Amino acid sequence: MVQSESPTGSTPQGQAAARPAVVRKPLPTAEIVKRVDYTHDLWSIWLKPDLPHPFTFKAGQYCTIGVDTVERAYSIVSAPHEPLIELFIELVPQGELTPRLYELKVGDKVTFRPSAKGVFVFNSKFTNHFMASTVTGVVPFVSIVRDALHKGLKGYEGHRLYIIEGASYWDEFAYDKELSAVAREFPTHFSFVASVSRPNEEKNREWKGEKGRVNMLAEKYIEQYKLDTASTLVYACGHPGMIEDVKARLLPKGFKLTEERFWKE
Ligand SMILES: Cc1cc2nc3c(=O)[nH]c(=O)nc-3n(C[C@H](O)[C@H](O)[C@H](O)COP(=O)(O)OP(=O)(O)OC[C@H]3O[C@@H](n4cnc5c(N)ncnc54)[C@H](O)[C@@H]3O)c2cc1C
Fold this sequence. Notes:
Strand content: 25-35%
Order of helices and strands: EEEEEEEHEEHEHEEHEHE
Bound molecules: flavin-adenine dinucleotide
Radius of gyration: 21 Å
Distance between the termini: 34 Å
Helix content: 10-25%
Number of domains: 2
Shape: globular
Largest sheet: 6 strands, antiparallel
Structural class: alpha/beta
């Protein structure tokens, strides 16, 4: 729909000339070509943007999608070389956009801003990259890992990525198999730890992996990996509470940190 902020047409006699009409171009759209649901409130979609030019971005950046006039930022799971834009979304039941996104199926369209944004990208000035995330906060790290693999690890020589992801339940990880497989195949470049924060709940009965909140585990793993402040950049993404706590624990020790908060508390 073309929206017009002021009326067009002839000026009635005796009235000041109407300001020129401001005609907003409709936003581009993207079609949902695939959808995978992991839990009742977590799912991924794959978008095919309808743009006159290729959609370019750096691994770790986000795109802006919407339904009607409600728009929100979503970090991109896919790496820049992939033909589709993959997003991993959490339903916020009281939210404005996600309940609408949740209703969409393959073939439906969302609005899609034509430029990617964000500075939460791989920083090659550091050799050690400690990447802490909660649930969907793992998204930028998946994109960075996929990009590194696509480049045959060119540009990543001497770098090591330590990814840690936390969730309440094991079925919220979604990308854990992919990241575990990469860590097994390229142990000199990647490590991956998934941790459930509610290990005693029935749903996590079978869970054999790490237990506890990411913020509590950050110090443990930084120590275990023997990471020093000069060579390490800490990336924290997702839940603002986790980010605040990781900062409170690691900044006084001298670590440098970059963050991407998914919402305000
Ligand atoms: C740079 C950036 C990247 C992002 N990437 C992702 C992503 O990859 N996947 C993703 O699912 N979301 C991502 N988000 C969050 C996303 O932009 C929306 O804020 C989120 O989907 C909720 O939108 P909504 O309109 O449904 O809720 P809103 O109407 O915006 O929010 C309703 C209320 O819920 C709170 N809230 C928002 N999100 C959450 C949440 N996840 N958990 C609990 N409370 C919340 C808000 O603070 C507000 O009080 C990102 C945000 C930013 C800024």
